[in-house]
């Protein structure tokens, strides 16, 4: 096989995603609005084929396009997460788009393009390539956040996300410029500072700017203030995507920088340590006082970013960082499953216009929608870290990695924050099962089969991986070893 064809195989998922996005955009003006479910079906097919196309980079691992992109076990693992998230979001949002009378073609095309950008970030071996992937994902996400154009909150969410996201992107791009000034290259595996003090200073400044840009994208404190407003104002299926796919891709890029750039680990360690503690406490304490379930889950997302940052701090603390990298990857799998499921349930139970997303609106849901209440309870208990769920093992592996790296205080603070989080997760479950229904009863809408299928996949994945984690943690460990 010739080298150019090998390169195409290594970016096969991105090619499939972009091809189906263009196909959907071409068909959108032709297909009648009433039959836009066809476009959703094509998009689901595209995301599924992209997921299957990860077999090609698995068959032909290695550097592509003169080292700009790398197909390895690590990038393959992250591709499974982001492509799987896109597949579930598109499938689960089909009925939502019909109910809210939103254009399915543009919506699905934007998700496919955003996912392609996430895949590029996961495999980027060069900073400008990573920047292109970041912008592909971000620009599509800005539009998706404001997709409900007639809703003021959605417009506000899109504007806030765009303005603050552009600011963070500027930090990231300026960091790349400083990297190039320090080493004469933007390749991560060639990131060695020139032999003078000014070059080393430029490299440290570049790492600092890049850290700020990435911390914003994962909603890590103190760069998290955009997340509650954006997550609340964006359509719930979009929030499901924003809280999973981009976060996984950004953490993957941060892990690759830690693995390939020798100067990153000692410089980022304390920044990761502080950001992890701030994120855990800021997210959990703010979630305690929320009355909106979407805002509560948004602050919960900040806290979970802190838990993953503990794993990154572990990866930066030791020469044998595989345990921290594997723990972060495993955590991202479980987090994606339960977060997607929770937000898609909020989209369904919130009703037309998402008018019923206050926690008090969920009182009595167990009587009206017992299956939905059971699924949401499972996802919340997994986020809490209850045994037999994937969330418990995710926190266990992060906790264990921190102890092995002698980060005792981080491990203690992680455990303390898990106890704090129990209050607001259990509060929702108590409301669904034990509180009286609102005086004005909320009508129970029938659950479409597409959403039922997504919730079944997420629920079974949450329990199955929680009981039998060996295969997933084995893949995560292989991906971590492949980076070193």
Write a structural description:
The protein has 484 residues and is mainly alpha-helical. It is globular. The protein has one domain. It has 22 helices and two strands. Helix 3 runs parallel beside helix 7, helix 5 packs antiparallel against helix 7 (104-123) and helix 9 packs antiparallel against helix 10 (197-217). Helix content is 76%, strand content 1%. The protein has a two-stranded antiparallel sheet with strand order 1-2. The two termini are 27 Å apart.
End-to-end C-alpha gap: 27 Å
Runs in which pLDDT lies below 50 for 5 or more consecutive residues are none
Class by SSE composition: mainly alpha
Write the element-wise H/E pattern from the N-terminal end onward. HHHHEEHHHHHHHHHHHHHHHHHH
Total discrete domains: 1
Residues in β-strands, percent: under 5%
SS element count, helices = 22
| Quantity of strands, as a count | 2
The portion of residues assigned to helices is over 70%
Integer average pLDDT: 88
Trace the largest sheet across and list its strands: 1-2
Major beta sheet summary = 2 strands, antiparallel
Shape: globular
Question: What is Rg?
Answer: 21 Å
Give me a quick take on this structure:
The protein is mainly alpha-helical and 484 residues long.
């Amino acid at each position: 096989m010739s080298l150019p064809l090998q390169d195409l195989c290594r970016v096969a998922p991105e090619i499939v995603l972009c091809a189906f996005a263009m196909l959907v955009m071409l068909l959108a003006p032709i297909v009648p609005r009433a039959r836009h479910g066809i476009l959703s079906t094509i998009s689901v097919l595209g995301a599924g084929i992209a997921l299957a196309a990860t077999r090609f980079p698995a068959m032909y691992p290695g550097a592509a396009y003169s080292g700009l992109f790398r197909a390895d076990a690590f990038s393959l693992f992250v591709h499974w997460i982001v492509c799987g998230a896109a597949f579930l979001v598109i499938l689960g949002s089909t009925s939502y788009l019909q109910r809210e009378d939103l254009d399915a073609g543009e919506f699905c095309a934007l998700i496919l393009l955003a996912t392609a950008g996430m895949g590029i970030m996961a495999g980027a071996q060069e900073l400008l390539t990573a920047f292109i992937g970041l912008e592909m994902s971000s620009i599509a996400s800005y539009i998706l956040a404001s997709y409900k154009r007639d809703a003021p909150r959605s417009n506000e969410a899109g504007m806030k996300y765009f303005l603050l996201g552009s600011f963070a992107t500027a930090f990231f791009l300026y960091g790349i410029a400083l990297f190039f000034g320090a080493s004469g290259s933007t390749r991560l595996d060639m990131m060695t500072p020139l032999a003078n003090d000014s070059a080393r200073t430029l490299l440290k400044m570049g790492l600092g700017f890049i850290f700020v840009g990435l911390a914003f994208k994962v909603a890590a404190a103190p760069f998290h203030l955009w997340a509650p407003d954006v997550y609340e104002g964006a359509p719930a299926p979009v929030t499901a995507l924003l809280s999973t796919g981009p976060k996984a891709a950004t953490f993957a890029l941060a892990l690759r920088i830690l693995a390939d750039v020798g100067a990153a680990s000692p410089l980022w360690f304390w920044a990761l340590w502080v950001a992890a503690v701030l994120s855990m406490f800021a997210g959990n304490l703010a979630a305690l006082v929320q009355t909106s379930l979407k805002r509560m889950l948004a602050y919960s997302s900040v806290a979970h970013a802190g838990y993953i940052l503990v794993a990154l701090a572990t990866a930066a603390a030791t020469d044998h960082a595989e345990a921290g990298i594997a723990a972060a990857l495993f955590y991202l799998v479980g987090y994606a499953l339960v977060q997607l499921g929770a937000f898609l349930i909020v989209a369904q139970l919130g009703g037309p216009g998402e008018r019923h997303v206050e926690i008090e609106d969920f009182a009595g849901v167990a009587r009206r929608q017992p299956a939905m209440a059971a699924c949401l309870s499972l996802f919340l208990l997994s986020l809490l870290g209850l045994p037999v769920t994937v969330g418990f093992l995710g926190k266990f592996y992060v906790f264990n990695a921190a102890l092995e790296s002698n980060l005792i205080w981080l491990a203690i603070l992680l455990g303390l924050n898990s106890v704090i989080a129990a209050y607001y997760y259990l509060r929702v479950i108590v409301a669904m099962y034990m509180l009286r229904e609102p005086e004005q009863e909320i009508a129970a809408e029938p659950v479409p089969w597409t959403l039922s299928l997504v919730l079944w996949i997420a629920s079974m994945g949450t329990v199955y991986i929680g009981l039998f984690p060996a295969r997933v943690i084995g893949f995560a460990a292989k991906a971590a070893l492949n980076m070193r």
